[in-house]
Write a structure and sequence with these properties.
Pathway: Amino-acid biosynthesis; L-methionine biosynthesis via salvage pathway; L-methionine from S-methyl-5-thio-alpha-D-ribose 1-phosphate: step 1/6. InterPro entries: IF-2B-related, IF-M1Pi, IF_2B-like_C, Initiation_fac_2B_a/b/d, M1Pi_N, NagB/RpiA_transferase-like. Catalyzes the interconversion of methylthioribose-1-phosphate (MTR-1-P) into methylthioribulose-1-phosphate (MTRu-1-P). One of its GO terms (molecular function) is S-methyl-5-thioribose-1-phosphate isomerase activity. The protein is of the alpha/beta class. The protein folds into two domains: about 130 residues, Four Helix Bundle (Hemerythrin (Met), subunit A), CATH 1.20.120; about 200 residues, Translation initiation factor eif-2b, domain 2 (Rossmann fold, 3-Layer(aba) Sandwich), CATH 3.40.50. It is about 40% helix and about 20% strand. Strand 8 and strand 9 form a beta hairpin. Helix 1 runs antiparallel to helix 2, helix 1 packs parallel to helix 3 and helix 2 runs antiparallel to helix 3. The structure holds 5-S-methyl-1-O-phosphono-5-thio-D-ribulose (MRU). The site of 5-S-methyl-1-O-phosphono-5-thio-D-ribulose (MRU) has 18 residues, from helix 2 and strand 9. 5-S-methyl-1-O-phosphono-5-thio-D-ribulose binds next to helix 2 and strand 9.
């Protein structure tokens, strides 16, 4: 059983506080949409799919808070704007908010019912996406294979099995022996979350520093690298947690396949290349301090939260509909088929 990062019941959104993991398992209850927005900003909840799901419930909570003192539609637009301004890079946030905004009408009660239903649907749909990505990943996980993953594309970042980790959970359930190296992922250590959740599930996982990944690729007979993503452009370039690009470059050098688990809600067909995607700049303290311990001098810090991996470094995008090439033609074809 994996820990659930998001739970909703009767107007209360309960989030597992990921800033406290793996030391403490603590939950935060949100009963107003501002608290939901702050939870996303402060990375109490994190990971592209989880951010989208949380924002969807934030809209529900915003609607429940409505006290009739202004026009409902304008009020809800403000709720959605506040939630959409929390984190800029993962497209799942805007994808979920856009879907939610489409069921809001002048009728407050009807809107609340429709919003609750849709948020629940987005949550359930994510579970099914996780499962299906896992099934498409499973054939890559042969007995005695070895993988590297980066950041946390796991159950904590989604509603269920994760994206890049889903195949690991399914393979483990089938008693397939394999090994995962998990980059620690400076500066926020999301890789420690991956090591935590995989080890809780009994999967053979080894934590490495980000700078050890190339050495593992050189020496450990790695079968493939599998990472998640925060946005995929129409041309197949991928935005994911900082550190993904050097991992992809090193994988290419050592001829190791590099896969990106990419749910369709994470594609942004409106941007033809990643140059148009806002990359979140996070604060210097994340780099100068490890938790509360100062580890760097007071010098300038450059701390982009994500990097861009060009499609030429990507072996395949593992979507819930199958593995496709990271190229515009394949992506456009997939979305045409899904629409039909
Ligand atoms: O800054 P974070 O922790 O929200 O970034 C998360 C990542 O980059 C994940 O790899 C990505 O969202 C995939 S989650 C299935």
């Amino acid at each position: 059983m994996t820990l659930q990062s998001i739970q909703y019941k009767d107007g209360v959104l309960t989030l597992l506080d990921q800033t406290k993991l793996p030391h403490d398992i603590q939950y935060v209850d949100c009963t107003d949409y501002e608290a939901v927005a702050v939870a996303i900003e402060d990375m109490i909840v994190r990971g592209a799919p989880a951010i989208g799901i949380t924002a969807a419930y934030g809209v529900v909570i915003g609607a429940l808070q409505y006290n009739g003192d202004k026009d409902f539609i304008i009020y809800m637009q403000n709720v959605i704007t506040r939630l959409s301004n929390t984190r800029p890079t993962a497209i799942n946030l805007l994808w979920a908010l856009d879907r939610m905004s489409q069921v809001i009408t002048e009728d407050v009660n009807q809107s609340i019912v429709a919003l609750e239903k849709l948020a629940q649907h987005i949550y359930e749909e994510d579970k099914s996406i996780n499962d299906r990505i896992g099934k498409h990943t499973l054939p890559l996980i042969k007995p005695n294979s070895t993988f590297i993953t980066h950041c946390n594309p796991g159950s904590l970042a989604t509603s269920a099995l994760g994206t890049a980790t889903a195949g690991f959970y399914l393979a483990h359930a089938q008693n397939i022996q394999f090994k995962v190296f998990s980059d620690e992922t400076r500066p926020r250590f999301q890789g420690a979350l991956t090591a935590f959740e995989l080890s809780q599930a009994g999967i053979d996982v080894t934590t490495i520093t980000d700078s050890t990944a190339a050495t593992v690729l050189q020496q450990q007979g790695v079968t493939a690298v599998i990472v998640g993503c925060d946005r995929v452009a129409l041309n197949g370039d991928v935005v994911n947690k900082i550190g993904t690009l050097p991992l992809a470059i090193a994988a290419k050098f050592y001829n190791v396949p590099f896969y990106v688990a990419a749910p369709t809600p994470t594609f942004d067909l409106m941007v033809s290349s990643v140059d148009a995607i806002p990359i979140e700049a996070r604060n210097a303290r994340e780099v100068t301090h490890i938790y509360d311990n100062k580890v760097a001098a007071d010098v300038a810090v450059y701390n982009p939260a994500f990097d861009i991996t060009p499609n030429s470094l990507i072996t395949g995008l593992i979507t819930e509909h199958g593995i496709i090439d990271a190229h515009e033609q394949a992506i456009a074809k997939l979305f045409e088929e899904v629409k039909a």
